[in-house]
Amino acid sequence: MPTEEPISVSAFNTLEVEINAGGIATVWLNRPEKNNAFNAEMIAELLRALSEIQMNDELRFLILRGRGKHFSAGADLSWMQACAQLDYDANLNDARELGKLMASLAQLKVPTLAVVQGAAFGGALGLISCCDIAIGTEDSLFSLSEVRIGLLPAVISPYVAQAIGPRAARRYALTAERFDGKRAQQLGLLAEAYPAADLESELHGWVANLLLNSPQAMRATKALMQQVKHGDLTPDLRSYTESAIASIRVSKEGQEGLSAFLDKRKPQWLLT
User: Fold this and answer.
1) Residue 219: CB partners within 8 Å, gap ≥ 6?
2) Beta carbons within 8 Å of 148's beta carbon, 6+ residues apart
């Protein structure tokens, strides 16, 4: 559970990474004095943290959160101001790092759950959209705010469009309107929106439910859904799905899960 004492805490300058005995990694955006706005340092540290998580085969899933009042205000304006003084090539390098971060989060092999409170503006919507699941508070506020300062949500746009659909993405990218958690749920950005007072207890329920599942099967299912995408059936996709189910059936956890079900007992992953 999220309240379980972490067995390891990795301190970064802009993040905090906790791993508990249940195999849950929690990455905290940890610049509350800046409303968790991200800059080049945070992007680099997120890339390093995700790389470490990707290589840790003991982890079951990742929770992405923000310390303090807000999930993230998006890009740090001081950093953006400094970027404006740089030439095209330097800005392109910055954009490539941000693109690498979004791709790394979206393609992470473990399931990911974003937990949102307060503001989630600009690039923060990219982080949320890259996660497999997101929950938040009803009074959280979202905005693709880039056009208000003469910019555009370029790097995050493919992920946001996948999360809320191209028509809604076009609207909110062009208008920079703010919308709340209830609207975010209607759009599909959030799976569920809760009263702020209930967020932690509801998170416990999500974690408890995910812990019921085979870790190997969840990773394989995430890889499967990344291949399936919009469900357009091709010969290659059909072959992939056939191979995927055959492989998981003969795997150690697949065999254990089937045996436990037939024997009416708990599978081993619930006992460790």
Assistant:
1) 109, 110, 111
2) 176
215-270 belongs to CATH 1.20.1050: no
What are the pLDDT digits (tens) for 81-112? 777 788 999 889 999 999 999 999 999 999 99
Closest CA to 125 of 101, 168, 99, 157: 157
3-state secondary structure of 168: helix
Phi, psi of 67 (to 5 degrees): -70, 145
What is the Cα–Cα distance from 174 to 186, expressed in whole angstroms? 19
Identify residue 8 by its one-letter amino acid code. S
38-96 pLDDT, tens digit each:
999 999 999 999 999 999 999 999 999 999 999 999 988 888 777 778 899 988 999 99
In the structure encoding, which two tokens stand for residue 89, read together?
Answer: 């090539």
Instruction: Determine contact, residues 34/66, Cβ cutoff 8 Å.
Output: no
Whether the CA torsion 15, 52, 140, 162 is positive or negative: it is positive
Cα distance between residue 169 and residue 159, in whole Å: 10
Domain boundary assignment for the chain: 6-211, 215-270
Find tokens 């390093």 and name the residue.
48
CATH number for the domain formed by residue range(s) 6-211: 3.90.226.10
